[in-house]
Amino acid sequence: MATTGNKNINAKLVLLGDVGAGKSSLVLRFVKGQFVEFQESTIGAAFFSQTLAVNDATVKFEIWDTAGQERYHSLAPMYYRGAAAAIIVYDITNQASASFERAKKWVQELQAQGSESYFKPPIGNPNMVMALAGNKADLLDARKVTAEASTLDAQVYAQENGLFFMETSAKTASNVNDIFYEIAKRLPRVQPAPNPSGMVLMDRPTERTVTTSCCS
Amino acid sequence: MILILTKSVNRCFEKNPKFDMTPLLGGTDVVFSSLIHSFSWNPASFLHAYTCLPLAYATRQAAGAILQDVADSGVLFALLMCKYKVVSLVGAQKASLHPDDMLLLSNFVMSSESFRTSESFSPICLPRYNPMAFLYAYVHYFDVDTYLMLLTTSSDAFYHLKDCRIRIESVLVKSNVLSEVQRSILEGGMRVEDLPIDPLPRSSISHHLSQQRLLTDSHEGFSESVFGIGGPSGLWHFIYRSIYLDQYASSEFSPPISSPQQQKRLYRAYQKLYSSMHDKDIGPHKTQFRRDENYVLLCWVTQDFELYAAFDPLADKASAIKTCNRVCQWVKDVENEIFLQGASPFSW
Fold first, then answer.
1. Residue B153 CA to its chain's centroid (Å)
2. Bridge partners of B304?
């Protein structure tokens, strides 16, 4: 959850998306200003932090860059639990839009986890700021579908689902800082008034956390 | 493969023999190729023992103390490693880490570039510890060579482990452990040329690797003319495996075993020697002396240790045996620096 204090906002941010969409490349561009042509696959998840100043606040992002491989899917809730923001990344050059379809699945999962039901408290955050990033914009020529159509698809999809959409390129750095900046601007500035059904459950310590912290 | 997927993958094969596990293993090809490569250079793969970075006893103690501190706070295993060598490691009570699992762990971390860019948190399975379950590994590189692994059973423990790492890092920096580690990498380990020749006055003085190095350095002209082709009696290389500690120490490769091809050939010879010594049908044996066109190989197995030594093919048998005794004595003299003592989880 985003927490505020003197206009300092701590926000957990998670990157989700298909293998090879460019999640790590986006983060490395944003956090370290680096880009490598052949980025190795992420193992598990990598953690980064980066601070951004927006007009009225300083936002400290705690970023979880998750691995895209299928075998890590069941672990994803561990990383997006309590996240204030998510960037769902897909590869715009990907054939048959498989990468985009995978991105939609992630959006669905986050929405489902964010909604509350009688039986389960939400794992995700119903007020999560979600961004859709069509990455590898520098390779526009390689795109199989015509650029306008697929950009339009993504824009419409994003609008219908309450996300904002940007085409990014970790290679040229185009729109990379912008997407994080946009998220920072959209984060709720003030915590909603204490709301036992929503907030408290979100931060509830699980049994396992207790065992790790109670020892000497 | 179990490291990445746990043995549960067997269930998938039982249900569907045509089950294709390739997608599940995506992105791990480097882990496998590096592991396969390690079977042709890393003695840990056939000795089933691990090796330590040579360090002053007090330095290793300091590292062990802070690791023990975090292990008491709910961390299952804490390992501080430098490439494939252990700086220090501790385990929670009753938990022991098998050397084979340590090889898998260090290979996993070393081969994946992604661990170097930031701190990571990843599920991992240690087949010798529990082939059915995942542990969670927190991995952080302190510098290019040195990294910390904290293993836990809890998938929620990342922030706790991150705090542990910050504590460990500040202690390691304050007590100069990290700079000592860098120094040790530069200095290297035992060299056959440094094998003490005079067996007499040693019992009274405690020996240190670095002191001996100073000694040989000051006699450089002398040692070069006499031992230009390895150590005393034509000793080229040795591996000493301590049975109780599950650790081994080997000498640095030095001329004439200098090229990678020669090292690989010697490695294969050791491998054969090891398997012939542990052959279930005709062994186990106590000693073996073998001479071929490449080396004289001498192996000596006792209850406490195994010694594998390679000599010049023309080496004299009696003096080779004498040299082996000296090597054992030398290892005992410096054991506090080359081995991790006591605090090892195997003592639980």
1. 25
2. none
A212–B152 C-beta distance less than 8 A: yes
The 10 Å Cβ neighbour count of residue B29 is 11
B123–A75 C-beta distance less than 8 A: yes
Tell me how far apart the alpha carbons of residues B43 and B41 are, in angstroms, rounded to a whole number.
6
Q: Quote ipTM for the complex.
A: 0.72
- pLDDT, one tens digit per residue, over B83-133 is 899 999 988 877 788 888 898 889 888 888 888 888 999 888 888 888 778
Q: What's the mean pLDDT when you consider all of chain A?
A: 79
Confidence label for A204 from pLDDT (cuts 50, 70 and 90): very low
Distance in angstroms (rounded) separating the CA atoms of residues B68 and B170? 15
Q: Which pLDDT score, from 0 to 100, does residue B6 have? A: 54
DSSP B119-174: EEEEEE--TTT-TT--EEEEEEESSSSEEEEEEES-TT-HHHHHHHHHHHHHHHHH
Give the orientation angle of helix B29-38 with respect to helix B99-111, to 10 degrees.
Answer: 130
Closest-CA distance, B123 to chain A, in angstroms, reads 6
Using DSSP, state whether B247 is helix, strand or coil.
strand
User: Is B72 at the interface with chain A, CB within 8 A?
Assistant: yes
Give me A201's structure tokens.
């459950």
CA distance B346 to B348: 5
Q: What is the DSSP letter of B347?
A: G
Among A42, A45, A212, select the one facing B160 at the smallest CB separation: A212
Rounded to whole angstroms, what are the CA distances from B306 to A142, B149, B244?
A: 61, 29, 11
Name the residue type at position B41: W
- Residues in contact with A80: Cβ distance below 8 Å, sequence separation at least 6, in sequence order: A14, A16, A64, A86, A110, A113, A123, A124
Distance CA(B60)–CA(B181), nearest Å, equals 10
Q: Does A48 touch chain B (CB under 8 A)?
A: yes
Give pLDDT, residue B215: 45
Regions in chain B scoring below 50 on pLDDT? 200-206, 212-228, 343-348
> Tens of pLDDT along A74-90?
778 888 888 999 999 99
Q: Kindly report the pTM of this predicted structure.
A: 0.78
Residue with tokens 């490569």: B37
Q: Is A140 a residue whose pLDDT tops 50? A: yes
Whether residue B154 and residue A209 make contact (CB cut-off 8 A), yes or no, is yes
Residue B173 in contact with residue B80, Cβ under 8 Å?
A: no
Dig out the tokens for A138 from the structure.
């520098």
Q: Which residues contact A109 (CB under 8 A, 6 or more apart)?
A: A76
